[in-house]
């Protein structure tokens, strides 16, 4: 069991509706030493990739992406969520449905921050149905850039996102894959990796 899985067992809370709350260490209060270990592990898993940029999505991906970026020594770009698009300058736009908030957002990245020369590692905190990731992949592809890999902290393996993204041929690495979780008992089971 890795350090993130241990922490999820210690401090994660299973909520109704297939939501795992990890706000005491991952996406509200943030444990930076834990993020640093995660960054080391992503660097190991993507060691052979020519990554020159990290892309994430606001808000909860940003903290993780910044610490991960210290291991790759590359800049971080985050996609902004925009209800109405202020088309000041050229933007890449994708529509993303939020799993936790059940609403649709346009996510945008300024064209000047992604180009065909970029080799991108996408980072996010959670993977559920894969909608956020599909949006980020679409943005990278609109720029003519290359998705070199995708690094996720927590994948909920019982939802469809992981399978569909892997089926598209991307190297998707999740540090903890939850195979099952139960809001009544609080029990969380991880997939063997
Ligand atoms: P997806 O687009 O893959 O369905 O959902 C991914 C996004 O939804 C993540 O960026 C994350 O913010 C949020 N999310 C999905 N499932 C969970 C969950 O169980 N717990 C938390 N805290 N966030 C989640």
TrEMBL record:
GO terms for cellular component: cytoplasm. It is an enzyme of class 2 (transferase). It is found in: Cytoplasm. It catalyses: XMP + diphosphate = xanthine + 5-phospho-alpha-D-ribose 1-diphosphate. Pathway: Purine metabolism; XMP biosynthesis via salvage pathway; XMP from xanthine: step 1/1. Keywords: Cytoplasm, Glycosyltransferase, Purine salvage, Transferase. 5-phospho-alpha-D-ribose 1-diphosphate binds at residues 128-132. InterPro entries: PRTase-like, PRTase_dom, Pur/Pyrimidine_PRTase, Xanthine_PRibTrfase. Residues 44-154 form the Phosphoribosyltransferase domain. Xanthine binds at residues 20, 27, 156. Its EC number is 2.4.2.22. It comes from the Bacteria. GO terms for biological process: purine ribonucleoside salvage; xanthine metabolic process; XMP salvage. Belongs to the purine/pyrimidine phosphoribosyltransferase family. Xpt subfamily. Homodimer. Converts the preformed base xanthine, a product of nucleic acid breakdown, to xanthosine 5'-monophosphate (XMP), so it can be reused for RNA or DNA synthesis. This is Xanthine phosphoribosyltransferase. It comes from Faecalicatena orotica.
């Amino acid at each position: 069991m890795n350090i993130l899985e241990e922490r999820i067992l210690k401090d994660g809370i299973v909520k109704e509706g297939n939501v795992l709350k990890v706000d005491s260490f991952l996406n509200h209060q943030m444990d930076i030493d834990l993020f640093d270990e995660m960054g080391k592990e992503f660097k190991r898993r993507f060691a052979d990739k020519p990554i020159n940029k990290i892309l994430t999505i606001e808000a909860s991906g940003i903290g993780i992406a910044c610490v991960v970026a210290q291991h790759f020594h590359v800049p971080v770009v985050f996609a902004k969520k925009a209800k109405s698009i202020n088309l000041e300058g050229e933007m890449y736009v994708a529509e993303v449905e939020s799993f936790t908030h059940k609403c649709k957002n346009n996510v945008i990245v300024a064209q000047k921050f992604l180009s065909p020369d970029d080799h991108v590692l996408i980072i996010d905190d959670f993977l559920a149905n894969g909608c956020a990731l599909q949006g980020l992949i679409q943005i990278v592809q609109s720029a003519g850039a290359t998705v070199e890999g995708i690094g996720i902290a927590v994948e909920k393996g019982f939802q469809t996102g992981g399978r569909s993204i892997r089926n598209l041929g991307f190297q998707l690495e999740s540090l903890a894959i939850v195979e099952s979780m139960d809001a009544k008992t609080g029990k969380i089971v991880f997939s063997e990796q």
